[in-house]
Amino acid sequence: MFFNGGMIPTYLVVQKLGLIDTIWSVVLSGTVSVWYLMLMRTFFLSMPKELEDSGKIDGLNDIGILWYIILPLSKASLSTIGLFYAVGMWNAFFTPFIYLNSPNLFPLQVILRQIVIANEMRASELVGADDTAVLPEAIKFATIMVSTLPIIMVYPFIQKYFVKGVMVGSVKG
Fold first, then answer.
1. Could you list the residue range(s) of the whole structural domain that residue 149 is in?
2. 95 lies in some domain
3. Whether the Cβ atoms of residue 56 and residue 65 lie closer than 8 Å to each other
4. Structural domain contains residue 99
5. Distance between CA atoms of 150 and 154, rounded to whole angstroms?
């Protein structure tokens, strides 16, 4: 993750709320992504006005139009944004690294980072000892594999939304 202008104010807010070294500091600091919010806003604004008009003709109120017309057509974009957001949060190590101090609260990515750094330090100490360097490499690769499994397991269930067109069959004309 790159340093952004909101990182220090966010840290100060989390600190003033007394959430440092709690899981809520990680959850609340990553709840809203402005980039994804703007992307979804642009998507919703690009929907044809005729969809809303057809819903009003059918007797739907604004909530009904959203629930029965807009959201079903938004499944592809919502699932894509959801997958991107989930992968980003799953792979994030810096946010938990700055907010959490207790090792028992560290997520897998922070532990993976610690393993990689420890293996790099061991590798620099073991110059020429190839047999003993195999075990730390195997542990590192196994940890990386375990960290990618949840995303790999979720992707097939979301893949059907990537294949479908977003607006297929919504407006004829």
1. 7-31+74-163
2. yes
3. yes
4. yes
5. 6
- Number of domains observed in the structure of the chain: 1
Distance in angstroms (rounded) separating the CA atoms of residues 50 and 60: 14
Contact 150, 90 (CB under 8 A): yes
Cα distances (Å, whole numbers) of residue 11 to 81, 85, 95, 106 = 25, 20, 10, 17
Each residue's pLDDT tens digit in the chain (173 positions)? Answer: 455 667 888 899 999 999 999 999 988 888 888 888 999 999 999 999 999 999 999 999 999 999 999 999 888 888 888 888 888 888 888 889 899 999 899 988 888 888 878 777 666 665 555 555 556 677 778 878 888 898 888 888 877 766 665 455 555 55
Q: What are phi and psi of 6, to 5 degrees?
A: -90, 0
Query: What CATH number is given to the structural domain containing 83?
Result: 1.10.3720.10
Cα-based angle 124, 125, 126 (whole degrees, multiple of 5): 95
- What's the token pair of residue 9? 């104010």
pTM of the model: 0.71
19 within domain boundaries: yes
